[in-house]
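Handout, page 2. Input:
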Amino acid sequence: MSVIVDYMTTKHRECDDVFSEAESAVSQNNWALAQQKWQEFVAELETHFHAEENILFPQFEQATGMTAGPTQVMRMEHEQMRALIDDINKALTEKNKESFLGTSETFMVLMQQHNMKEEMMLYPMSVQHLPDAEKVDQDLKHYCDH
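Output:
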């Protein structure tokens, strides 16, 4: 498998793990840990989104000429997730366990579907179409890991 696919998929799993830790902390009414893990998750997720939106997607669009295709859908889903993050932030601030867990369940479903589309379609298509996928991979790693 390609470096882009492997690296970005690994980043998805790392985000999933921290997300689960935040949910678990809320379930146990450990609001301080929940806040810490949630902030960590959101920071990682935003870094991931920005790497895709500023590096991968533009490179893909330039290489393929597709600007109204998969990257447009991914950007739209990023915005949907950002809106749900706002709702979850509110629930966390209010220490509203029911609201947090209900909204986080919706978020998780959207995120899993989104990640699957990227991992099974967009990332492999990127590797296929990008003239210098290795360089893009290095740019993504530099952006995400610093």
